[in-house]
Amino acid sequence: MTPSICILPRRALLLATLAAAALANTACAPILLGGAMVGGTMVATDRRTSGTQVEDEGIELKAGQRIKEQLGDRVHINVNSYNRVVLLTGEVRAEEDKAAIVRIASGVENVSKVLDETAVTFQSSLSSRSNDVLIQTKIKATLVDAKDLISNAFYVVVERGDVFLMGRVTEREAKRASDLIAGIQGVKRVVRCFEMISEDELANQLPRPAAKQP
C-alpha cells in the first residue's frame, strides 16, 4: 500500500474540509487557515497585524474590481495581497494587458509592491483550476503535518500547477516548506514570494507562555 493511498482518518478529514472550503470560493483562491491545532488549543498564527489583514482584503477587492472594469473578460486574473505586497497570477492575451494590470494594481491605495506572475497564454480550463484546488489542499495538509512549521504562516496560491508562497518567514521555514511542497504530486514549480525575517524577529512575535501563579 502506497503512502498516497494509506491516509490517516484525521488527514483525510482535513483534505476534505480544505477542498470544500476552497471550492466554496473560487478555484484559484489562496488557502490560509485561521489557526493551527496544537495540543488541543487553537493558536492564531497570522504574522500580520489585524489592521494589515483588513488592508490586504481591501487591496484584493479594489484591484480585482478595477481590473475587471478596465479589461473585462479578456483576462483571467487572480489578485492576492499579503502585508501590502500584491501577487498577480492568471492569464492575459498580450504584453499590453500585463502592463495594464500591473499599473492598475500599483495604483490601489496601500499597495507597497506588485509581483506580476501572469502568463501570456490562453485562459486556464475548469479542469486545470480544479486541479489547482486539489494541489492546494495537499499543500496545506502537508504543512499542517509538518511539526516544525506553523502552517498558516504560509499564504499559498496555486496557478496552473505553479505554487506561489507568501508570508513573513525565516530562511529555515522558507526552505523547509519549499522542499516539502516541491515533492507533492502535480506541483510544477515553487516560487518563493516571501518577506524574510530573522529567527530573532520570529521569536519576538511568538506568544510568550503565561507566567505561573505562585
Main sheet, how many strands, which sense, barrel?
3 strands, mixed
Uncertain runs: 1-9, 33-43
Name the helix and strand elements from N-terminus to C-terminus, one letter apiece. Answer: HEEHEEHEHEEEHEEH
Strand order of the largest sheet: 3-4-5
Radius of gyration: 18 Å
Distance between the termini: 53 Å
| Overall geometric form | globular
- Count of folded domains: 2
Q: For this entry, what is the oligomeric state of its chains?
A: single chain
How would you describe the overall organization of this protein?
By secondary structure, the chain is of the alpha/beta class. Helix content is 42%, strand content 22%. The N and C termini lie far apart (53 Å). The longest helix is centred in the first third of the chain and has 22 residues. Helix 1 packs across helix 4 and helix 2 packs antiparallel against helix 3. The radius of gyration is 18 Å and the shape is globular. The strands form 4 sheets. It has a 3-stranded mixed sheet. It folds into 2 domains: 105 residues, no CATH class; 71 residues, Histidine-containing Protein, Chain: A (2-Layer Sandwich). It comes from Roseateles agri. This is BON domain-containing protein. Keywords: Signal.
